[in-house]
Each structure stands twice: as C-alpha cells, then as structure tokens.
Amino acid sequence: MNEFWHGTGVDTTGRSLETRVQAANDVLREAGPVLLRARDQLHRKTSTETSRNIFLVVHLFDHFVAESMRFILGPLLDPLSDIEASTRCGCSGR
Question: Which of 20, 25, 48, 61 could hold 93 in an S-S bridge, CB 3.0 to 4.6 Å?
C-alpha cells in the first residue's frame, strides 16, 4: 500500500497552492461575455422548438469559489438578468 495511506507522511515542500477565493456570483459575472456568446450561438444554431441550455463549468484551479463546498449553488446565485432579458424579447423558444 502507498506510504501516504499509512500516515507516515510525505514531504509537502513545494506542493502548496495559493489562489484567490471568489464568491460564486463574482465568477458568474466575470463569465457574462462568454455566456452571452454562447446564448447568441444557440440562437443561431437551434430552432425555437429546441431546449437551449448553457453549462458553465468552473475549474477549481481557475476560480476557487467560496461556496464550492455546497452541493447546489443555483439558488444562491444572482439572476442573469442581462442574459435573460434578451431571451425574453422573443429571441428564444421560451
């Protein structure tokens, strides 16, 4: 078995990581331009009968989200009013 699992320890010198911790809403706001481009692409490539979904995947090493220990973040996030407003104008299949 690996010595790590025996609890004998491993020298962690040089194995640390420093990163800025951000709120999930800040990461979402920063992703706004990417989400807008994805939305526009969906509008061009799909019909109104098609479900239009965008998934934002955030890698831990790119943005460490303070709320990342929670299982469900959706209810904690601010609405994407700038993206949703432009889809309610008749541009999407909603």
Answer: 48
Q: Are 78 and 34 in contact (CB under 8 A)?
A: no
Domain membership flag for residue 88 = no
pLDDT at 41: 92
46 in any annotated domain: yes
Q: What is the pLDDT of residues 36-73, one digit of tens each?
A: 999 999 989 988 888 888 888 888 778 888 887 777 87
The structural domain count of the chain equals 1
Q: What's the whole-model pTM score? A: 0.62
Q: How far is CA 20 from CA 16, 29, 49, 60, 64, in A?
A: 14, 16, 41, 11, 7
Report the pLDDT value the prediction gives residue 88, as an integer from 0 to 100: 45
N-term to C-term CA, the chain? 55
48 is in which domain, residue-wise? 21-73
